[in-house]
Every structure is written in C-alpha cells, then in structure tokens.
Amino acid sequence: MLFLAVFCGFLAENFREHQVEKNRGRQYILSLYEDIKTDTARLNEMLLYDDDKITALSDMEPCYDTISMNLLSTECMGKLVLHSRANRAFTITDRTITQLANAGGFRILDKEDADSILNYVNMFKDYQDFQATIFQSSQDNVRNTLNELARFKSIRSLLQLPGSSYGTTTSTISPDMLPHGPLLFSDDKFLLNKWFNQLSVYLRITKRQRQQLADIKDKGSGLIKYCKDKYHLK
User: Fold this and answer.
1) Are 36 and 220 in contact (CB under 8 A)?
2) By CB distance 3.0 to 4.6 Å, which of 146, 178, 216, 233 could disulfide with 78?
3) Distance of CA 63 to the CA centre of its chain
4) Backbone φ and ψ of 193, nearest 5°
5) Distance of alpha carbon 207 from its chain centroid, rounded?
6) Can you give the C-alpha Rg of the chain in angstroms?
7) Has residue 175 been placed in a domain?
8) What's the domain count of the chain?
9) Are 57 and 203 in contact (CB under 8 A)?
10) What residues are paired with 150 via a beta bridge?
11) Which residues make beta-bridge pairs with 184?
C-alpha cells in the first residue's frame, strides 16, 4: 500500500509538472505570436521603403547619360543621392526568443513549434549576415565615392531636405525641392563612372535585400497562421 501511495504521488507530481510546462509553453507561443505580428507590420513599412529606393535608383541610366554630356546638369542626381546614402536595417522583436533561449524554453515546446521558430530566427540571421557584409560594403563604396565626387555645400543642403534623413522615404520630395546648382565638385569622369557603376551594384543588392525581407515576412505570416490555427488565437 505504501508503494502504491508513493507511486500515485509520483504520477500526480509528474502530471502537475507536465501541466505547468504545457501552460508555460502556451505563454511563450502567445508572446511570440504578438512579437511576430509586430515584426510583420514593420516589415510592411520596410518593403515600401525599399520599393521607393528601387524605383528611384532604376532611373540612373538616363541620369548618367545627361551628366556625361554636361557635368553641370546634375539635377537628376539628387534623388539618386538621397536613395543611396543610408539604409533601414530590420531587427526582429526578440524578447520571447531570448527568453526561450536563456531559460531553455525550446525543450518544453512541441518539436514542430520549436522547429518553426528556429527556422524564422535562422532566416533573420542570414539576413543579418548579408547586411553586415555584402550590403554594408556596397553602401560604403557608394557613399565614399560620392564624398570624393560631390560639392560639400550642395550635398549638405540636399541632405537637409525634409524626409531625407536616415530611415525615411523620400517619395514626398518634389523635383523643384532638389538643389538646382551643380552637385559635382570633381570633373573627373572616371570617378563619375565609378560612382554610377557602384550605384548599379547597390541597386542589385538592394533588390536582393528586399527579397530577403519579403521572405522573412512570408515566414512570419506563416508562423502567425500556424499559431492561430493550432492554439486558436485571435
């Protein structure tokens, strides 16, 4: 009888611990669900930002032709400068993911849940690696060559336009707001050609960045649906 009582107590304690862990796991999922909704909302804004940038930079070829024929005709260069001087980097909302990692929370989640979350995190890490290496190198190349090529006062006034600061779109800037004086300090056509070549690479890399962000958003949207369906969330 004593053995039976101890055994039943052991089963009851195991059941209680299982229920506690199950509830903790659900709380993690609820918290993660809110985090990813925040991420996808921010990703929508960032995709619009990149769309604005890609549209502007896609006009670089006729601008190059215009400036090559007349180094004083640099009006078209303004929007290219504004859309290539800075970037908005995406960061996931990691409060729940950090808790899961630090508290060993992944072990109490269903394997399918944990795998789905880790796939999302790994996709973001790939994007981070791309940002820190390929994208940043291209951004630096364009910015450094422009610093050699452009007039200080013209660029300074250009970057003081409303909406031209880091992390904002510039679609609201009309052509008549751009500086009408020459932007070039140097008449070195080799340097000009170098900047446009670097700008062309920057455009391709920006398109790749946008695709990565779209993939992360799709993954996040899939996770939201998965959690909503499995855990009957609103």
Assistant:
1) yes
2) 178
3) 28
4) -60, -40
5) 12
6) 26
7) yes
8) 1
9) yes
10) 184
11) 150
Q: pTM of the entire structure? A: 0.83
The number of CA neighbours under 13 Å toward the Cβ of 181 is: 10
Tens digit of each residue's pLDDT, the chain (234 residues): 544 445 445 444 454 444 445 667 788 899 999 999 999 999 999 999 999 999 999 999 999 999 999 998 888 898 899 899 888 889 999 999 998 888 777 888 889 999 999 999 999 999 999 999 999 999 999 999 999 998 888 777 777 765 555 444 555 555 555 555 578 888 899 999 999 999 999 999 999 999 999 999 999 999 999 999 988 887
55 domain residue, yes or no: no
184: which DSSP letter? B
DSSP 109-151: S-HHHHHHHHHHHHHHHHHHHHIIIIIHHHHHHHHHHHHHHB-
For residue 212, give its domain range.
2-50+60-231
Encoded amino acid at 13, one letter: E
Residue 188's CB is within 10 A of a number of other CB atoms, namely 13
> Do residues 149 and 185 lie in contact, with contact meaning Cβ atoms separated by under 8 Å?
yes
Beta-carbon contacts of 199 under 8 Å, excluding residues fewer than 6 positions away, are: 57, 60, 80, 84, 142
Distance, CA of 87 to CA of 27 (rounded, Å): 35
Residue 231: count other Cβ atoms within 10 Å of its Cβ.
13
